[in-house]
Design brief:
The structure is a single chain. The chain has a seven-stranded mixed sheet, with helices on both faces. Strands 11-12-14 form a three-stranded antiparallel sheet. Helix content is 35%, strand content 15%. The site of pyridoxal-5'-phosphate has 11 residues, from helix 3.
């Protein structure tokens, strides 16, 4: 059976190899005569899955030993609250860089916890770019600086992160984690919902420097990083099926040649589609300014809303899934996360060129 040309923004396509392996093991996980979903989360068999997911993520992202890896629930959206609840010192506040709707949502939750300031924002120019590093300002004593590494909705991505020195840098990497090499030691905390690059929805990965894990009796137990760090993310029942699928995706990523090979594939994929935009003589217009272009979400429009409609209609008829832009911005968006094959990007680029030829 042929796989759909799935350009969904999230939940997104998963590697076919992962789905086939999960199918093969579905009824009988490693000779247990049980599905992985039916195992106790305290069993030896499940422990192996849980530990493997954590070890593979550490290996692939080269996460240093002084960082804890947590598997939580509540999506990246719950991290918008957990980050300030655990890390915002009310005497000093926290700093947020606004580059799109997700950073606005993160800011909104932080405001409920304590004072916040905006370190930089590209809202006025329609979020078409990441702010230049020299335009970002925070108070020396701020609790942390928060940014969104890839703006899923607007299609922009940080190419270089600010140097924050002693101030912890916190990143929502939901839509570009594991898509390129990063230096984890530059960050105090990284979080990501799994459903874009890591697996299915239902598990959220948090990578936190150990010295930032504090004891705070005033926090609800489930919302404290300390609780989950002290219990290896097994304080309560974790999303075992999602973590199992995460472990398979990480195995797949390693088989691909690890993050450096995945990064190369992603560059190639993005180039195919950006070239179709850039060589269209203005038929396709990219939303992001050149230096801020995302390698994960490519946003563009056509010369009129009628043509955009027609493009989406015909793309749908041709078997492309998920190419409408986010409901808040319109236009078109191709999300080309790690698991989207190069082949599918090539087919989309060809479709774009053909559509232009017959409609201009
Ligand atoms: C998808 C997304 C979120 C929301 O994730 P949930 O897991 O649905 O809460 C947050 N931030 C970014 C950058 C995203 O792409």
């Amino acid at each position: 059976m042929a796989r759909a040309y799935n350009f969904n923004a999230g939940p997104a396509t998963l590697p076919e190899e992962v789905l086939l392996k999960a199918q093969k093991e579905f009824l009988d996980f490693e000779g247990s005569h049980m599905s992985v979903m039916e195992l106790s989360h305290r069993s030896k068999e499940y422990s192996k899955v849980h530990d493997k997911a954590s070890a593979l993520l550490r290996e692939l992202m080269e996460i240093p030993p002084d960082y804890e890896i947590l598997f939580l629930q509540g999506g990246a959206s719950l991290q918008f609250s957990m980050v300030p609840m655990n890390l915002l010192d009310r005497n000093h506040g926290a700093s947020y860089i606004l580059t799109g709707s997700w950073s606005e949502k993160a800011l909104k939750e932080a405001k409920k916890v304590g004072p916040v300031e905006i370190a930089a924002s590209t809202k006025e120019s329609g979020y078409h770019a990441i702010p230049p590093l020299e335009d970002i300002h925070w108070k020396q004593e701020t609790s942390y600086v928060h940014l969104t590494s890839n703006n899923t909705i607007y299609g922009t991505q940080w190419q270089e992160y600010p140097q924050t020195g002693q101030v912890p840098l916190i990143a929502d990497m939901s839509s570009d984690i594991l898509s390129k090499k990063i230096d984890v030691s530059r960050f105090g905390l990284i979080y990501a919902g799994a459903q874009k690059n890591l697996g299915p929805s239902g598990v959220t990965v948090v990578i936190i420097r150990k010295d930032l894990i504090k004891h705070d009796d005033s926090l609800p137990t489930m919302l404290s990083y300390e609780t989950h760090a002290n219990s290896k993310s097994l304080y309560n029942t974790p999303p075992t099926l999602a973590i199992y699928l995460l472990s398979l995706v990480l195995e797949w990523a390693k088989d691909q040649g690890g993050v450096s090979q995945i990064e190369k594939n992603n560059q190639q994929k993005a180039k195919l589609i950006y070239d179709a935009i850039d060589e269209s003589n203005g038929f396709y217009t990219g939303h992001a300014s050149l230096e801020s272009r995302s390698h994960m979400n490519i946003t563009f429009t056509l010369p009129s809303s009628e043509l955009t409609e027609k493009f989406l209609q015909e793309a749908g008829d041709a078997g492309f899934i998920g190419l409408s832009g986010h409901r808040s911005v319109g236009g078109c968006r191709a999300s080309i996360y790690n698991a989207v094959p190069v082949e599918h990007c090539l087919i989309l680029a060809e479709f774009m060129k053909k559509f232009q030829k017959t409609n201009s």
